[in-house]
Design a protein that fits this description.
Blueprint (H helix, E strand, L loop, with lengths): L1 H24 L2 H32 L1 H11 L6 H10 L8 H7 L4 E2 L11 E2 L4 H17 L1 H12 L4 H22 L9
Antiparallel strand pairs: 1-2
Helix pairs in contact: 1-2, 2-3, 3-4, 4-6, 5-8, 6-7, 6-8, 7-8
């Protein structure tokens, strides 16, 4: 269901890009009714699918407990929690670094001999990584621990993408630790 949700979001994104292109070309009026119907249909399908995802999580005791724990973390909402549950069934059973690597958020060294290359993120679960970037943007503003962390990186002169990646990695590590400990988030936990 989470994968299908991602497909519907991609389809909606493409439709919105087409609508924007039609406006630029001056042909928006020709397709206005069709585009409106398609957008409304995709919105209805997304709403129904999100309800199904919520229902599936609510009816499974383990998934419900994990979702409650994950949603207690400022920055992790219904979409990020359902993605973490669906894409990382290992959550809570791994060390924090391995959880970040599975999410594709661990820095990979590109070293050879004495040469030290630039560290980049790669691999992992791409869809989860993209959702965690969005969660990291929210967390870097609303989670007091991660906000302080992001500000410290910003004051050290780190680029925005590096900051968001580091916050996302830390968010996955926090989520993993909380699920492992079976307790909700508190600023003292991290």
């Amino acid at each position: 269901m989470v994968s299908k949700r991602g497909q519907l979001l991609e389809t909606r994104k493409r439709l919105l890009a087409q609508i924007k292109a039609h406006r630029k070309l001056g042909t928006a009026e020709i397709f206005a009714d069709t585009d409106a119907e398609l957008k409304a249909l995709l919105d209805r399908l997304l709403t129904a699918l999100e309800f199904q995802i919520e229902s599936a999580i609510a009816t499974n005791e383990d998934l419900h407990e994990a979702a409650e724990i994950l949603r207690s973390v400022p920055g992790i909402g219904p979409v990020a929690s359902s993605m973490l549950i669906a894409e990382m069934p290992e959550l809570g059973q791994l060390p924090g670094g391995q959880a970040a690597a599975l999410a594709g958020l661990a820095p990979i060294a590109h070293d050879s001999g004495a040469m030290q290359g630039k560290r980049t993120i790669a691999g992992g679960r791409r869809l989860l990584r993209h959702v965690m970037f969005q969660a990291a943007l929210v967390a870097s503003h609303h989670n007091p621990v991660l906000k302080t962390f992001a500000e410290r990186l910003r004051s050290a002169g780190k680029p925005h993408k590096v900051i968001i990646t580091a916050v996302a990695r830390k968010l996955v590590a926090i989520a993993n630790a909380l699920v492992k400990a079976r307790q909700k988030w508190s600023p003292q936990f991290t």
